[in-house]
Amino acid sequence: MTRPKYAITRYTTANRINHWINAGLFVLLLLSGLSMFHPMLFFLSGLFGGGQWARAAHPWFGVFFMLSWIGMIIQFWRVNLPAREDIAWSKAIVQVVTNDDEHVPPIGRNNSGQKAVFWAMTLLIPVLFLTGLLIWEVYFGEATSIGVQRVAVLIHSLAAIAAILVWVAHVYAAIWIRNSVRSMTQGYVTPGWAWHHHRKWFWDLASGQRDKTTPRKHP
Amino acid sequence: MSDLQSQDYVRRSASTMTPPVARSHEDQVAKLIDVSRCIGCKACQSACMEWNDLRPEIGHFEGSYENPMDLGPSVWTLMKFAEYENEQGNLEWLIRKDGCMHCEDPGCLKACPAPGAIVQYANGIVDFISDKCIGCGYCVKGCPFDVPRISKKDHKSYKCTLCSDRVSVGLEPACVKACPTGAIMFGSKSDMTHWAGERIEDLKSRGFENAGLYDPKEVGGTHVMYVLHHADKPSLYSGLPDKPRISPVVEAWKGIIKPLAVAGIAFAAIAGFFHWITVGPNEITEEDEEEAARALRGEREPDPEEKS
Amino acid sequence: MALTRREFIKFTGLGLAASSMGMLGFGGSGVAQAAAVRPFKLTHATETRNTCTYCSVACGILIYSMGDRAKNALSNIIHIEGDPDHPVNRGTLCPKGSALLDIVHAPTRLKTPRYREPGGTEFKDVSWDFALDRIARLMKEDRDKHFIATNAAGTTVNRWTSTGMLAASASSSETAFLTWKVARSLGMVVFDNQARV
Amino acid sequence: MTNTWQDIRNANVVLVMGGNAAEAHPCGFKWVIEAKIENGAKLVVVDPRFTRTASVADYYAPIRPGTDIAFLSGVMRYLLEKDAIQHEYVRAYTNAGLIVKEGFDFQDGLFSGYNSETHSYDKSSWDYELDEQGFAKSDDSWQDPRCVINLLKRHVARYTPEMVSRITGTPQDKFLHICELFASTAAPDKAMTSLFALGWTQHTVGAQNIRAMAMIQLLLGNIGVAGGGMNALRGHSNIQGLTDVGLLSNQMPGYLTLPNDKETSFDEYMSTKLFKPLRPGQTSYWQNYRKFVVSLQKSLYGDAATQENNWAYDWLPKLDVPLYDIIRAFEMMNAGQMNGYICQGFNPLQAFPDRGKIRRGLSKLKFLVTMDPLDTETSRFWQDFGPQNPAKPAEIQTEVFQLPTTCFAEENGSLVNSARWLQWHWKAAEAPGEAMSDIWIMSGIFHRLRELYRKEGGAFPDPILNVSWKYTDPVAPDPEELAKDMNGRALVDITDPATGVTTKAGTLLDAFAQLRDDGTTAAGCWIFTGSFTEKGNQMARRDATDPREQGIAPNWAWAWPANRRILYNRASANLEGKAWNPKKPVIEWNGTRWVGIDVPDYGPTVKPSDGVGPFIMNAEGMGRLFARNLMAEGPFPEHYEPMESPVENVLHPKVNANPVARVFADDRSAFGNAKDFPYVATTYRLTEHFHFWTKHALINAILQPEEFVEIGEVLAKEKGIEQGGWVKVSSKRGEVVCKAYVTKRIKPLIVDGKPAHVIGVPLHWGFTGQARKGYGANTLTPSVGDANTQTPEFKAFLVNVEKTSAPVAA
To answer: What is this model's ipTM?
Structure first.
């Protein structure tokens, strides 16, 4: 893998490892969870060695996912804080989805769509984690009443669906905005990419305000 | 082997196939528990353990004749005792055999995510097929009567099978056979309902005006029914639900949400696909790179709105 | 076998697909056909008619044992239930009768004769010959020493009061008769059964 | 039982008092439920506790333990006062009209003839006035003040409803309601059955409890009829058989009594047995006594029993005391008068009163032999098990043998059920390990002893050497051979003088009527004659056909005597021989003979007009409202307080408890008083367990795992006892520490104006087996018995109860 000379580091190695652990666990949770959600998808439990294994593994994936997500929060909470520009960007959502980037206002490191993904997950994952604990039959089956568990399982599945929808959007956006995937696999973007998608961030970098990811000033 | 063919099932958990309906003439069975004849001797419990090779732990005395203290993976039926003082101040000892009710519309089966782990035979028996059980505990949440229990040893769910092995060879369940006073009867559901009517008449003649049959409509009727002296107050009998029904939460979860969610996820994916083929990928151009390079070389200053 | 990356993906993909198909029900009729009820366990068991050993309702019972009484099969009792032909219990059994299997196979069933010496702190396994020889000797010693042949009035009374016996009220009448013969021929009068307790 | 289990279904009223049929005999109790459902019967339960039987009763009344006679005497008073008796029946079939001797009297709690030094009665005045021919005088008009019915009226007059309630604690309205229900069965076509068990027998007045009820049943005409009778629900599976075969200290097979040492010769022995009829023309079946005894001796000693040696009469042991019962045996053990004890399938350390005394007694033995399929407490009495069995093995010099035996599933043989049915059972498997049958073990001991006597001689070896032992395998006689021995056979060709039919030598006999007193027949147990005939093993019959579904099933197994299912069934028909209840006839006179669904308990061709009474075993042919000299306490039942009682006997404080109870000095000193032990305790079984056996069975240990006592809510509150909390129950003899079951089912009773609390003590737990360890109810119980039978008073004694904490594991 060769890194272009003027590449801008968008995600550090730690960012990327954390993200992909996250992503892996999410996929495992998604597959094992869906296998227990809809009979049509029960075949997915085969990926885990059958229903018993899927059922046993799912909550443990969840525990690690929660831990992993805490890592994500620590690393990304600051860059996902809302900013005034988010309003303008959100107003231009039609232009965003139609690739009419000329008419999209410039934004910083993350646009509000990305922020929405982050905060949605930050809300949903703990909900999934806590409701998941309540219905973790092996350890907490007798900890709460069946009535509580019924509500928990309902919330758990609603939250999971929401999370999946957010995830679909996230994955599609990564594919749609070309070279985003590379930023999360190899960690860098080209200056042009930063210029095009996150111009404010680009200028911050160019003016040396963000030290770690500062590209070389002069080629 | 006494394999029942798949055609003997009328319901099968988490299955996407339509159950076969060709064999539509099988008689439905029912167990009738006449509480007014029950002496609480626990022969049913004993026979159940013996026939089904179940031996729970030896417990302690906990202030009641109830032992073990609860249904469990190895306790499929349990006598529950309630000391009740009636309006006349006379004591009644209301003793009820607890266990699976074999609902016509089984909440456990509805909630179960494992294909074929819970089945309902054409004769009405709701059976757990351990081989297919994944131990998720959803049946526990689905059951309106708090019956299934998950084993900590093998993580499978257990409950009364109505001795499906005995019934399949033409015998009555073990508890029915043992019951010394005939408080547990077994036969076709229609015969049991008729017999219950006679019993209720007798009870009414002995001063139990509210005697009646417990065959709750809310779960489509049950294949285990009770004759109660106080059918107006089932909860007197150690908390038998007055109006049992599958929880609306479970109904929602296993009803509308399931297809909506799958549809929603599929829609999101399809929307993405069509976005791709209509709008297409958002790619940067050479110009972007050049502009960026110029900016980096300091040949360009940001516009005011481009500053953070 | 060297696999290129592309081939590897293909293989795992196929494997996944195959296993998923299996789970969907294409993996053979055994899986597709929904599982079976538990096989009926008495189909070829040997049935023996007996009477419940507990109370004197004397319920008829059917004892089922493994094996067809062929020479090489040591029959083992696997199940006991009520005899539906019996006019009193008509197949029913109480919680004790329903659990007769567990008394037959109780872990505290005795299997060897045991002996405890005077002042001893434990039982020792002994042979039947040792036990019966010793018992007979002790009984004879006591009888010879304390037997009352005649009373003060000179009447022959043939009475042995220093050794007594309690007879088993769950043993058969045939056992009882033999026991009576033995006890009375020895002149034993301290002789009772469980009729009262 | 006079009737069968299934016959209970014919009853109109079922009384369960002195027992807990649902709990102790669930499968027999089904016929009570059937009576309710199919016959509209009312179930009445009278019990100190609201039992499982009470849970399905139509009417329940509480009663203070040990006061049943007061209750039942009150019922008799009610029936006589309201004239709710079945006149025709009482007049013809009971001794109501017979005239009692002058001199018979009852004053201040005592009948005539009491000797306060010996605590016994001279019973000579307890009899009828006889005429010149030796027949009892009678007054059929019941005018004579000394006729039985008038004496009875006078005797029970004191038991007014107020007095009954004052003694028993039963509320008056409940008592009177029950009287009404009883009275409804005085109608000729109505029947009441009485189901009882140890709740009546285990009292110092046990036999009189039962007598009182039997008198009520006679007054109501309920004896001998379908759905009636006195039904003792017996305990163990063959306790009836062991009683029938005479395994009691004073018994021989078939209810023949063992001689006592005043009966110095066979003729003297027989002179007290051959009951002459007391009324003209009566059967008095015991006139055949001699035939039964001679046939027994021929069975036991074969050719060695001869006319010349008085049928080996001298070889029978002779008693010097009325009974060598268990209470006496342990008294003797404690006094150092016993050296050896054999417990065959019996667990006295758990079963007998005053456990401490039992343990001390066993410790003084030279040897103890236990024969049992299970590891019993008794066989380990010498071992230390902490507070449940504190023993010091080093100090106990007893040699102990623990012999493993087969159980029911591993042997052939017959058992006699409560309804006197002899049922054969078959072996299903081999015994575990080296376990052997009781027959093999008893034979083994016997052969060794016989060999020793043959070789060495010794004390009086004659009976040992001469016992007949003609079995194919002398080491382990076949049960069928023993059954044939009991049935009996002809020893020479015998010809029936009436029919001219000859029975060949060696042939099995069909009926005890064939027995002879000249040594030409042998029968080990005359009442079993007919059970194993040339037609085969009658006990193995399995035809369950039940004519009219009336609960007889005459071809199922075989019932003694003579396959008769309902005793005294002649009394089911009126004087003309027609059934009192035409819907449920048992036997009827068809003009030439008695026919019906049962074997007549009567001469089959004796005409009704002959005036032969239906109670053919009794010398007067009648049911006895007046018991003559047959009971220790008196011819009528009288209320005496239990030995330990919270109150004084309000009828006659000077004669508080049973005046003729036998109490050993050390046992008397172990009685507690109401000041230290203010609560009445009663012991009982629970349905989940059978005595001390099923704690060895895992399922039953699961169903009722741990020792507890039952305490009413009021007392529990007073004492601060919590549900399921630990309590200490103590009597003068010991203490039990266990859990408490605080229940609404036991309520305080108002006795003589004061509340009396009852504590229930189930008896199943010990220190071997699978259930949790327990102290055993007999730690608390007093060592005193019924004056007639010495059945221990387990059902009413005094205790104290206190809240405590869990015992510290030893």
So the answer is: 0.94
